[in-house]
Amino acid sequence: MAQAAVPLNILEASCPIQVEHDRKRRQFTVRLNGCHDKAVLLYEYVGKRIVDLQHTEVPDAYRGRGIAKHLAKAALDFVVEEDLKAHLTCWYIQKYVKENPLPQYLEHLQS
């Protein structure tokens, strides 16, 4: 059976966005539409205390709803909490930091 429309309640209070962190797979995810779809932010350790935030992907049907913003915030909060340095390969995270130049983020960016 084909799926009709994507539910619009993904950002409603009854269905808040929950970011999950899978340290083994080095990714942050948001489950969409139950378990069928997911948005993901991938990272890799490129040094003992340096992570490369490499790629953020949100399925086309869910773009423009602020989901990538939640992934970026979770990843940057992780970098701050773990006192790591971040290299920003992902263009979206670069954009997020420019739009949210919080001191705790800026001081954890790799120069």
UniProtKB/TrEMBL annotation:
Domain N-acetyltransferase intervals: 20-110
Gene3D superfamilies found in the cross-reference section: 3.40.630.30
InterPro entries (UniProt xref): Acyl_CoA_acyltransferase, Gcn5-rel_NAT, GNAT_YJDJ
Pfam short name (any one): Acetyltransf_CG
Family statement: Belongs to the NATD1 family.
PANTHER family registered for this protein in UniProt: PROTEIN NATD1 (PTHR31435)
Identification of the protein by name: Protein NATD1
Organism, as annotated: Gekko japonicus (Schlegel's Japanese gecko)
